[in-house]
Amino acid sequence: MKKIKRNHRLFSYIIITILGIYYLTPLIMTGVYAFGDEWGKSLLPTNFTFHWFNELFNDQAFFLSIIRSFILSTIVLVMILIVMIPSVIIIYLHYPKIDKLLQSISVLPYAIPGVILVTALLKTYSKTGVP
After folding, report:
1. pTM higher than 0.85 for the full model?
2. By C-alpha distance, which of 34, 33, 30 is closest to 55?
């Protein structure tokens, strides 16, 4: 019985290791690509540098865009909290039938595959001229 349990544990560690490598490889390669200076005909760059990060952090437009994004996300978050919390409380307390409907609707993005959603959104917004 112990041998079966030990084999099962070993199999679990192997699967977790393979999945970890599978999920971490794109992140690691993105980091390698960010620090790469010259690329040859290999998987890894020939030189590594901080030049790209130096250029990025010395760019004033980068910091302005980060600040602008932070301000916009904070404003949207506050607006959502102001609108949604009272709405959810009112619907939950006074309209339980609508509450069940809204719960069902809120699960739809997880139930419907993303490709179908993107296709529907493209058809919807292609006629409006919104980029």
Report:
1. no
2. 34
